Amino acid sequence: MKSAIELRPPDLRLLRAIVDIGHRLESVWINFEARGVELQALRANVAACANAESFDLKRLALHLRDLHDDMSARHLAAILVPFERLLGKALRDDEFLVSTTDAPDRPRQRAPMVVIADNLRSAFNVGAIVRTSEALGLEAVWLTGYTPTPDEDKTARTSMGTESSIQWQSLPRVSDGIQRAKEAGYTVVALETAAVSESLDNFIWPERVALVVGNERFGLEADILKQVDRVLKIPLYGVKNSLNVGIAFGIAANHYRQNFTRVRAQHPAPLAAPLAARTSQASEALMLQPIGVFHGPARFPYEARRQGSEDLSASIGTIELYPGHQFEQALDDLQGFERIWLIYRFHHNHSWKPKTLPPRGPHVKRGVFATRSPYRPNPLGLSVVELVSIENLRLKVRGFDLLDGTPIYDIKPYLPYSDAFPQARAGWTEGLSTEAYQVALSPLAEEQIRWLESSGIDQFSGFLLAQLEYDPTDNERKRVTQTEVENEYCLSYRTWRADFQIPPGTKTLLIHRLRSGYSTSDLANHTVDPYADKALHREFNSVRFRANE
Fold it and tell me: DSSP states of 264-304 as a string?
């Protein structure tokens, strides 16, 4: 409370009034009339700061020009931060922290996770994140925007000295941190409840991660979510749809640390170790470490093409190799090859099946070694892709069937003279129809897809094409049902539905409209929202699409 003690009583009363009014204004923000009253009172008190005796309080009078009628609640929160810090009104929960005997001699193994905390207001939350990061053995903490830093007294009291045991730095903007993390080979993961969020329960962590957390009240802005590689949420089962940022971070970071520790226990050999040192006999386990990670539009197995060669779109994927391992030299001379082989991990799979049902053909299970199924004893994949370009440690590719976040283990050139055998026998797949359905979109469906993609549902069109090109009405392999209309079917994608028609005796398919999977009564219930996407569905239902007029 040092800054508050130094203020003379009149200045201290004024500062307390400003903070109290600001908090009241936040609490009545949605009430336009009450907001106007509190905003007028806030302006008057901020203007009075110009006559304060304290220079620290006097200079805050310049914020009067920022108190506009049309400002957002997020903007108000940013204005209140310097007043709160001067008063020392940030949370005092540090008084309840208990210090136990530390273990300075404990062997440390840093996990390659960088934490990026953007525009946090509470010094307690920041101190808790720093302390948790150090306790879990994470690599570093980057504080962006107006987030308090550990060299401030209130933050230091809650970080309890751990700021000296973990690297931390302050950056002007969160976008700076995201760019720096990507350049260093980290997969950037945002912790945010959004329509595109993946559940923590099913999330497979990349080895090198930059975890981004946002403001206590507003979270991360939409344009920031577009810059990250993955968006992650913690599944909740109560009435509240959010957690304190420090607690949410702790849950996610511990989930990552447990996964990292388990993988390192199974594969302790460092990436830089000679291959000869990793295995000496054919019977011994071969321990692999990824050389990089793949980034692409498909995030879930049901969004990916069955084979990369079937992808006739212009979609570009990126392979980011990890720096610091001389991979720049390893890429020499690869540019001249049109296609390359990728060896990778099926990172969404945790078990294997001796027999599996292929996505095409008769409903007969086949031995997994006679299929391309990802459910294999060793979850390794092999795909050939078109090499578009190489820029430093980034390879642009096309015609892929990999999911976003796929760990890459090796890259080899495709050699037509030795890798292609077009006359080879094809086993049980011989005789299967190779003629795909011609999938078309009605003007209404095209307009609806553009709207959804602009709202963050950016995989809908790819999912529809991947699911409907072959056996579109196969309800044992797909979430497809027949509607009450003749020759009309409905395909489900998460909480969305696509209605399509197939004229009898043809190989053409028309998707004529998209719609919400929620009923009217479901959308009227604002309390239960397990996927945090009902607001988007309500907005979608309110849109007047031109093609529908």
Answer: HHH--S-TTS-HHHH-SSTTSPPP---SEEEE-S--SGGGS
Cα pseudo-dihedral 520, 525, 531, 536, rounded to 10: 60
Pairing of strands 508-516, 230-233: unpaired
CB 193 within 8 A of CB 228: no
This prediction has a pTM of: 0.44
Residue-by-residue DSSP string for 147-164: ---TTSHHHHHHHTTGGG
**Two tokens, residue 316:** 């570009």
Strand partners, 384: 341
CA distances from 41 to 23, 24, 103, 182 (A): 12, 11, 51, 45
Per-residue pLDDT at 1 exceeds 60: no
Helices and strands in the chain, H and E counts: 17, 20
pLDDT digits (tens, 9 = 90+) for 287-299: 678 899 999 877 7
CB 515 within 8 A of CB 444: no
Cβ proximity of 144 and 174 under 8 Å:
yes
Strand order in the sheet with 480-482: 438-441, 508-516, 496-501, 488-493, 480-482
**Spatial distance between the Cα atoms of 474 and 322, rounded to a whole number of angstroms:** 41
Give the pair of three-digit tokens for residue 295.
């980034």
Three-class SS of residue 369? helix
Cβ pair 128, 67 in contact under 8 A: no
Return the structure tokens found at 382: 């092999």
pLDDT digits (tens, 9 = 90+) for 176-219: 899 888 888 889 999 998 877 888 887 888 888 999 999 888 88
Pairing label, strands 380-391, 339-345: antiparallel
Give the list of residues 6+ apart from residue 259 with CB closer than 8 angstroms, or none.
Answer: 204, 205
Identify the H or E element spanning 344.
strand 339-345
- Ramachandran category for residue 191: left, alpha or beta (phi over 0 → left; psi -120 to 50 → alpha): beta
Sign of the torsion formed by the C-alpha atoms of 246, 252, 254 and 256 = negative
Cα 319 to Cα 23: distance, rounded to the nearest angstrom: 47
Residue that the structure tokens 């009067």 belong to: 64
How sure is the predictor about 273, in pLDDT bands with cuts at 50, 70 and 90?
very low
